[in-house]
Amino acid sequence: MIIKKTVSLKEKNSFKIGGTAKYYSEPSKENEIIYCLNWAKDKDLPVFIMGKGSNVLISDQGWDGLVVNLSINFCNIIWNNKCANVLGGSQLNLICNQAVKRGLTGLEELSGIPGSVGGAVLMNAGAFNTTISDSIKSVRFYDCSVSKIDEIENVDINFGYRKSIFQNSNKVILSARLELKQDLSAQELEKVRADIIRKRNIKQPLQYPNCGSVFKRPDGNYAGALIEKCGLKGFRIGDVEISQKHANFIINRGNGTANDVREIIVKVQKTVFNEYGIVLEPEVIFVGEFEEPLF
Ligand SMILES: Cc1cc2nc3c(=O)[nH]c(=O)nc-3n(C[C@H](O)[C@H](O)[C@H](O)COP(=O)(O)OP(=O)(O)OC[C@H]3O[C@@H](n4cnc5c(N)ncnc54)[C@H](O)[C@@H]3O)c2cc1C
Known about the structure:
Largest sheet: 5 strands, antiparallel
Strand content: 15-25%
Bound molecules: flavin-adenine dinucleotide
Helix content: 25-40%
């Protein structure tokens, strides 16, 4: 098991922002993951479990510990009729495509979400009328607090809007069992998939590095609409900008820094609160140290 020293995280996340990891590994098996976790524990180092890095803002100072990236080598998808057993690092979009081709319903509306299974389960990723929790039977995980592998059924995961018990939990998602339905043909599902991808391309600034929706949807409202009504579309600090195309996206025009993104996030929070009395909660996960406190 190779653990590298001083690895840049910039190219390993969808924002293309962030400093270096003090230590970095790409395990391929469960025992290698556990080895990495124990290795860091012995050295009293904090661990960050990384998937595809599509929902994170990594500090310019990087991560002063070990990054365990599961999305490179810890990937496998095994189908058994309507069910699939998928490893935590597997690409969600690939599973969606395979399900569509097999004529299995349940994941087609999640097409185009650029995350891994682990990140999607932890965030309960969702789009249109679907969340990944709709298709999850159970999740296998390693609990670092008790150094044990365990399995948990869907009902016990407390899935909610972008929420699961895995958040801030010291648990590493190893694999998930999915169960899909068989009520549409592969051709019909392909039409839905293609339409979803078309809508994403029209609405989202996908030509620039970004982290998806920056803020969660506040009750009875849309973050993007509130930000737009505050006149913040196009607001820019350095190379970081609130997208003209979709106000809940922040884009990196090239040399954006995490500090600039954080400053914009706080500016948006303050402006929306002053105008509408609504506190926008970030959906993006902050990794490492940041000077500017959130609102
Ligand atoms: C262009 C774009 C569009 C997007 N559209 C959507 C959308 O429609 N809906 C939506 O919900 N999200 C969307 N996202 C956000 C993102 O893709 C999802 O949140 C995704 O599920 C994150 O997965 P990831 O593997 O990239 O996680 P990361 O960004 O790598 O990590 C996110 C969090 O999950 C944790 N994590 C990752 N893997 C594991 C694991 N195996 N065990 C324990 N913890 C783990 C990390 O520690 C971190 O806390 C979008 C992002 C982009 C860039």
